[in-house]
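re: that complex we talked abt at group meeting.

here r the seqs, copy pasted straight from the sheet so there may be weird spacing, ignore it
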Amino acid sequence: MLTHPQIEHCPLFRDLSTEDRAYALTYFDSKTRTYEKGDFLHQVSFPLQRFGLVLSGSVQVYMDDIDGHHIIMAHVEPGGLFGESYAFLGIDAPIYICAVSEAEILWMSPHRIKAPVSPVSQLDQELSNRFVACLASRTLQMNQRIQILSRNTLRTKLITFLSQYATEKGDSFTIPFDRASMAAYLGSDRSALSRELSRMQAEGILTYHRNHFRILK
Amino acid sequence: MLTHPQIEHCPLFRDLSTEDRAYALTYFDSKTRTYEKGDFLHQVSFPLQRFGLVLSGSVQVYMDDIDGHHIIMAHVEPGGLFGESYAFLGIDAPIYICAVSEAEILWMSPHRIKAPVSPVSQLDQELSNRFVACLASRTLQMNQRIQILSRNTLRTKLITFLSQYATEKGDSFTIPFDRASMAAYLGSDRSALSRELSRMQAEGILTYHRNHFRILK
DNA sequence: AAAAGTCCGTTGCTTTTGCAACGGACTTTT
DNA sequence: AAAAGTCCGTTGCAAAAGCAACGGACTTTT
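got the structure back, here u go
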């Protein structure tokens, strides 16, 4: 797992020397495990002892609402984390996690953040800070999502969603969702989404093919 | 501020002895300040050095979206926190915070979480853990909000919203929003919301008056 | 006490959206 | 190669929702 280039993209491990990274893996008491496409990494209402870092493949996090609908909470690509909050709090996680494709996961424990082993080295403190920073960043990400979902028409939700991608990746980008997932992510209906995308393409606002988009205006 | 009973409701200070609580205030380098109704506690794009604890009154946190619409991110009552993520990350906060009523705020710095002063006492560690737990809990709260906003009809959003309150407070409760804020919180239109509430009352699902609700079915 | 302001329900109208169903393009399986 | 499966665009229709405007109840100001 040390050789996974993806690990560089994770703020937890970025810019660490090889020794420091090896230390970090023990600090978080890490274990890797691979999953086949469609496997469940976690089931609803089990405590999540560890949080995960996606090394390869991708996973999606879901919740069920009161009526039994599946709500997609997150799509996690290599370098991305999931479950940090539940793992830190040590509570039952009302989520389930599913491998979108064959995936390799680094499972890590936040135990030493909560109960540091003295003496606390500078690296220990740095790793702790990075973990907390990941928690804080997560709320910023969720703010972005709430911004999208707070808009009251599908058109404006779409514009907000695509603008966020465009801000980060430029005018041409690929999203990690198929239409159905994208509609769920936007809190909308798949056919309504297809219709709206068609309209926007007809109006010359953007072009797209499947999950690749190019913003024109 | 030591005498504010509200402080007991904050997970940061709950169940601390009087001395420990006094120590906590210095640990977080706390300062209090009062605001008049309508005052801004923070303006967009300024770094947030400290996070806030509402001692009395209430505040609301807003963001502006791309088109200049105001999105309500949070309503914070006595005992509630705001701005922890931005304060910890030390970044510009794209939010503004406004006093809904005359409000007394305890401003606290997360500095010693990031850079502990040795020797780190057991209480230091406890306070650090509590702060991180607040960050983690924040993401759970936001998950609740996303659950509401992900529903694709106003009726189901309302049911989800009200069910969350009913789960926490029982069948009869008062919400901290007027209609306009409630509609913004649900990502909807005020008149559409009024209309839907009327219908649900006519159907015998609930009764309400202003911001007080009673769930019947 | 009058005036101004706030909050909220109501309603008419138009647009948007959800929903269900169908079919085509493409991929995977057998 | 046929069959089955997946993904997505399209469309018709009915329901939902946005929008704008009005008026009543109530509160605050002057």
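couple things i noticed - The interface with chain A takes residues 63, 65-67, 69, 71, 73, 84-86, 88-89, 113-116, 120, 125, 129, 132-133, 135-140, 142-143, 145-147, 149-152, 156, 159-160, 163, 184, 187-189 of chain B (CB under 8 Å). DSSP finds seven helices and 13 strands in chain B.
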